[in-house]
Specification:
195 residues, alpha+beta, six-stranded antiparallel β-sheet, three-stranded antiparallel β-sheet, 11 strands, globular, binds zinc ion
Amino acid sequence: MDGSGFGRTVARDRCEDLFAIDVRRWQREERLEPGNIFHCGEGEMGPKGVKIAIEETGLVLVHRNPETGEDITQRFRLDWTACQYGGHRPWFICSELHDGKECERRVAKLYFKDGRFACRICHGLTYASQQKDPWGQALATAQAIRMKLGGDAALVNPFPDKPARMHWSTYQRLRERAQRAEAQVWERAQRLTGR
Ligand SMILES: [Zn+2]
């Protein structure tokens, strides 16, 4: 009951809409020293209470599943490549499992979706600029969420209430996503009508 997989069938989730951790930013903030422990991710879209511990060859992330309240531990290796003009550039190695085998893609960002951090490919994400018709995607997303919540596809109707058996956090996440999508739809509609 957390909306998992839902986005895949309607419109792919966009990187821009998800919480991400950025290894370059952590490098700039000098957080990548082994032994360093810090927190992040208390924002609206992010996971709750993420604790990061930097180790010699990687990092351990502990965060809480908002649906179940359970702690989730994820480990990622860090890799470093030499830059053309000196210095080293850090990378996360995605550890998402596919048929028992790790993804191992070298990425600068790991995105948080469905209670897990993973790379863009593992989460099936797209960038906004890659979508051929963002307006159509936004409309489809908003309509699908309204129907999933028991409403109909008409955006002029009031937004559906929370279904009885759905968690509040799930409902709020879906509602926020629908609101962002609907804002895009209305913005485009206003441009087209010249208002
Ligand atoms: Zn991956």
